[in-house]
Amino acid sequence: MAAPDLERAGGTGVTARTRATNALRRSFDRLPPGARADVRRAADVARGLTQVKRNQAALALRVAALERASRTVDPEPVDPRFPAGVLSKTCTQDQVESPWFAAWCEALGEPPQAHRKLWEWAYLVRVLDELDQLRPGRRGLGFGVGRESMVAFIAGRGCDVVATDLAPDAAEALLWTNADQHASGILEDLARPELCDPDAFAERVSWRPVDMRSVPADLRGFDFCWSACAFEHLGTIDAGLRFVEDSVATLRPGGIAVHTTELNLDSDTETIESGPTVLFRRRDLQDLAARLEAAGHEVATLHLVQGSGALDTYVDVPPYVPEPHIRLLYRNVVTTSVALVIRAGGA
């Protein structure tokens, strides 16, 4: 993913990253003394720049706290087809400062932070709850779940869950495995005893390999489906948009799809259209919504605002800070998270 994952790292195996780090350390030890001194000085400079970033982040959080008392929340539209607050919308300062955000973070067992990834998880489960999906008897389908805690959380609410991700031997899975963000088909990697009783988890959750570019035809009749910042990693803009349409086909009539992805905040023309991570433009999402509506589905009103708070103007750059991390710079483009909410049509 474009931003660091907030999930707990699982597994005890040595990753390729660890092996590479150890190899670099051995190479460093073989350098002449003068060269090692130069490397250490460069490292000191890098640490200094990192501290500058931390200082800037602290100032941004302080400014946001000071303005909170006098600043009014930006207005949102109302979509009469959905409960109040349920929109297809962007992550903003108003979102991460709202009471619902803190409440759902607590439910997920996460401390509330001004971080877009945490907003994605909290908003996703909030929408499913508002639309009466998080209760016993409901069937959910998760795409590209990695090791995210939402699988256990949703199962803990009584839902049956089919969790999917790339097959462990797929070439694309290697990147996520090395970053400890791929469950590799091991259900224990998705278990969170604090969110779902282990026996209940074993009974309610199953896993199967699925390439999101080719959703199997037998995955049908679900009450809801979701993905969290996954479909921007399918190689192209078109592949990501096609997945969203395919995901709606997995739902029963009236079922709910909630997907989060990357939104380009800089341009509605130029963007990153192909590669490991693509950035969707407003027009891409508007065209997608129009196609889905024409096919008889309902897309919650697109509310793709940039926000007016202090944290909405702070753009995080690598190495990323824990917060604020609402906007970030990816390959010289400013991006943030956006959620799409869709109700499947049909008789």
- The multimeric state of the shown protein is single chain
Q: Please tell me how large the radius of gyration is.
A: 21 Å
Q: Segments where pLDDT lies below 50 for 5+ residues?
A: 1-13, 176-182
Which fold name fills CATH's third level, the topology? Answer: Rossmann fold
CATH top level class name:
Alpha Beta
What is the typical, i.e. mean, pLDDT?
89
CATH architecture field: 3-Layer(aba) Sandwich
- Name the CATH superfamily assignment: Vaccinia Virus protein VP39
Number of discrete domains = 1
Give the fraction of residues assigned to helices: 25-40%
Distance between the termini: 37 Å
Query: Could you describe the largest sheet, including whether it forms a barrel?
Result: 9 strands, mixed
Strand content: 15-25%
What is the count of DSSP helices, taking H or I runs of 4+ residues? Answer: 10
Q: What is the element string, with H for helices and E for strands?
A: HHEHHHEHEHHEEHEHEEEEE
Structural class: alpha/beta
What is the β-strand count? 11
3D shape: globular
